[in-house]
Amino acid sequence: MTLTCQEQEVIFKIKDSGIGIPLEDQRHLFELFHRGGNIGNIPGTGLGLSVVKKCVDVQGGKISVTSEVGVGTTVTVSISWIP
């Protein structure tokens, strides 16, 4: 994880080297209970990124995800503020 603080913005970047998210599933990342087609027996509810997106939206921030199957996923959250 990296954290970058700029004058009026904070950026969190979380990167893993997991199984990655197939392209066809990436458009559904923020939908409640959606789980990727390649998860096999990995437990979960499909709520994680949808909850994070709601929290980021409430703060007026932005969230983006890049992923490659077999390589991993990077989630970037940026939140601006006025001091």
Structural class: alpha+beta
CATH superfamily: Histidine kinase-like ATPase, C-terminal domain
Proportion of residues in extended strands: 25-35%
Radius of gyration: 14 Å
> Please, how many helices?
2
Shape-level CATH architecture: 2-Layer Sandwich
Oligomer: single chain
Average pLDDT over all residues: 95
Question: Unreliable segments (pLDDT under 50, ≥5 consecutive)?
Answer: none
**Which CATH C-level class is it?**
Alpha Beta
CATH topology: Heat Shock Protein 90
Major sheet size, sense and barrel closure: 4 strands, antiparallel
Helix content: 10-25%
The number of strands is 4
What overall geometry do the principal axes of the alpha carbons give? Answer: globular
Separation of termini? 25 Å
Note the run of SSEs as H and E. EEHHEE
User: How many domains, as an integer?
Assistant: 1
Strand order, largest beta sheet: 1-2-4-3
Brief summary of the model shown:
The protein is an alpha+beta fold and 83 residues long.
